[in-house]
């Protein structure tokens, strides 16, 4: 099979551009290796060179076991490209060897406060954040959606759920601080929460609660029957 020179491909078909648009999971092993190689030779494109490497080493396992010297023997690779490939494979190997990450589990509003209180209680502006959860209510991430003023923050559903979708969250908990120290939800807080709950229902991402953080105090809109 003949692979074209990168610059001859339409932009939307180039591996690097496809990765930016569609994500790494959409690319083949050859596409990913071609990105690592960056360039081919005067007569061979990076795609062709990547295909040649896989024809020599058959699969990822064999490629990972190959030495720098063995990779360098492939015409067009050389020691520099061989080192690049081995370095990338070594990073993947180290990632696979990491122990499973222990994620906090959210069972009640107090669990949320234990995670965020000390960070948010003394902020001088409103920080609107979200805890992104998986199907077991484990915290996948804590994301800052917007930073506002002393008394308000502007949050658009698009920005919130774009983050949730990117992290494959099953549900989320909203949270923001009141710099005044009083965690009582305002009318604006309640209206915004209802809007975000409705957006989540459309997208299939449950908004479980909205926690307002004050000075060592908090208010749970779920507990107050506001959600």
Automatic annotation (TrEMBL):
Family from the record: Belongs to the UPF0758 family.
Protein name: MPN domain-containing protein
GO molecular function, one term: metal ion binding
InterPro entries named among the record's database cross-references: MPN, RadC_JAB, RuvA_2-like, UPF0758, UPF0758_CS, UPF0758_N
Domain called MPN: residue spans: 105-227
CDD domains in the cross-refs: MPN_DUF2466
GO biological process: proteolysis
